[in-house]
Give the backbone structure.
Amino acid sequence: MTSNSRASAEIRQLDSRGRDPRHSYCARFDIENRRYIGSKVRLIGHIFEVIPESLRKGHFLDIFGGTGVVAAKATQIFSTVTINDHLHSNEVIYRAFFGGSRFSQKKLDKFVEDIRRLKLPTSNYFSREFGNRYFSTHDAVKIGAIRDRIEICRQDLSRREYYILLASLLYSTDRSANTVGHYEAFLKTGSTRDSFDFRLIRALPPTRVTIFREDANQLARRLTADVAYIDPPYNSRQYSRFYHVLETLVKWEKPRLSGVARKPPTENSSDYCKTSAPKSFADLISSLDAKLIVVSYNNTYESKSNSSRNKISHDFIHQTLGSRGKVNVASVGVAHFNAGKSSLPNHMEHLFICKT
């Protein structure tokens, strides 16, 4: 079996709606069952193929964790894994899937059964802000009611059970969203339809994973690793804005929202989405204490959309990594995210491999 075949077997390939095409539906959500810009589901085999055997079984650092699928694969290969991301929603997902403590599946299943009998209010914060936009009004009421219920039950839940229920709500919510895969805008198709179904995630067995939600550059100064995997934002699209609905749902501070997209005040912006991206990248690479650095970056330099164009040139990435050691580059053809406004037939993901 080739490395790509193994990757396909372990991290299932999904259709455009996030479903496993071998089944009409997934009984529970696995970590890869997300619609997420820049997801590395289809790149996993290539990422781990470039890591030499001599560095496996050590410490793997994923400092821009995203969906968490790379870290999930790393737990099968490395003794210890560290994952970091600046989104609150991603931290919840990591703590749900990777949390080291045990949990009661019976208690979680009972929560799902209780939810199916939950008497819904006529409206709530979530339905007023997002109903008949990103979701049908009925679905939005249900999502808000479940979020309230999780908070009410928190004192009776273990820490991991709480995160599992929150992550399950995030996955269920994202599956029913009236979007192309992010929350920059919703589809204006005239009406939304009821499609929300609350289902649990399939949490992973206890693993040796350390979880952070910090600035990557600051965190890099405090950690050492055998392998550091770097997958920074590529363009000016801020992930905190792209996934603001999920961030609002997790934090549940019920902020005042504005605009057609119903966004909260700007926060948690990444310097990698700004003109300062090259400077931030150089600082990160100089700060990393790792034997091998692997950087993912694509070639969206000629996109018709200014906001989709890359912030760091490949020459700069190569030069910056070259200051730390020998650099090799592997290129992989992958489909790029497309909201229907652009076409990049020669889209590639490039893996820069630097042995320090």
Q: What stands out?
A: The first helix runs from residue 3 to 10. The longest strand covers residues 289-298. The radius of gyration is 20 Å.
